[in-house]
Specification:
alpha+beta, three-stranded antiparallel β-sheet, two-stranded antiparallel ribbon, extended
């Protein structure tokens, strides 16, 4: 019983210490209030975050290649490996004569920012359903 109580006290100490360190790190980020009262976050913090966390989902890593995921029904700017995997999977299924395709590799953009801009435009224009189905050449 005494060792269990010691363990509980020690665990509480660790949780309290970790939350105090997290609070200090949060307080020292480079966000500031503007004159209008809105919070300004330094764009360099976003760049730093994106470099530390390249994954945008469990399936994809961030990059400048635009794809459409037909299974999840969304556009994504992914890295070249994800783009090539999508392209190969699509070609293999087309050769097998499958009607429904898992994704569409759209194109490469010079920068991630341009890819995101195009992704945004396509999201708001609606998705042509033809991307996810075998092209009818008759």
């Amino acid at each position: 019983m005494r060792s269990f109580l010691g363990f509980v006290i020690f665990s509480c100490f660790l949780v309290f210490s970790a939350s105090k360190v997290w609070a200090q790190k949060t307080a020292t980020t480079s966000s500031a209030k503007t004159a209008s009262g809105t919070t300004y976050i330094n764009p360099l913090d976003r760049v730093y975050w994106e470099r530390l966390h390249p994954a945008i989902s469990l399936k994809y890593l961030r990059g400048n290649f635009l794809i459409y995921d037909c299974e999840s029904q969304h556009f994504a700017c992914v890295e070249e490996g994800n783009f090539m995997a999508c392209k190969e999977k699509r070609q293999n299924l087309l050769l097998k004569g499958e009607e429904r395709l898992p994704c569409a590799a759209i194109r490469e953009y010079p920068t991630y920012s341009l890819c995101i801009k195009r992704q945004y435009e396509l999201m708001h224009n609606g998705v042509p359903p033809a991307l996810c189905f075998k092209p009818n050449l008759n």
